[in-house]
Amino acid sequence: MADIAAQLAASDTVLVQAQREACRSAAVGETDADVAAQAAAAVARTGELVAPQYAGRGLVDGARRQDIRFVAAYGSPDRAADQLRVRRPLASGPFIGRSGRVEDSLDLVSATVQGATTSLRFALDPDRGAFMSGEGPLLFAACAA
Questions:
Q1: Which of 46, 72, 76, 85 is the most buried (most CB within 10 A)?
Q2: pTM confidence score
Q3: Which domain of life does the UniProt lineage start with (predicted)?
Q4: Residue 83: closest CA among 6, 37, 40, 142
């Protein structure tokens, strides 16, 4: 959890969740079979999603844009590196469980791994989406179905 806090320390707003809640808050397709099938197909192309021990979101407010970072802690550096490889492609393309494309709301700026922690940082236009509530489908931050 300290690694999550360190990576989100510069954020204006932070949400940190333990595994069960982190998985629930980003879940895709729980109530829609078509969305669940789309998510399963996307994950089949990239690799298995593994639940993090902890996950967090941090928002940095700017005058015209915001940055949002999704950080996840895994059990080992190898697992974190593998999950970054799996999740990075899910951070672009169809926004499964939402409308449009991921890039319509979130522009991936960086994808990094530090020790056993991954970080996906996006530029966010605040007029195009809100992602700090911890609610709503986010396949790149989700867990295995």
A1: 72
A2: 0.93
A3: Bacteria
A4: 142
| Tens digit of each residue's pLDDT (9 = 90 or more) over 92-112 | 999 999 989 999 999 999 999
Please tell me the predicted confidence (pLDDT) of residue 70: 98
Please state the domain extents for the chain.
Answer: 2-141
Backbone angles phi, psi at 100, to 5 degrees: 80, -150
HEC states along 37-106? HHHHHHHHHHCCCCCCCEEEEEEEECCCCEEEEEEEECCCHHHHHHHHHHHHHHHCCECCCCCCEHHHCE
Q: What is the mean pLDDT of the chain?
A: 93
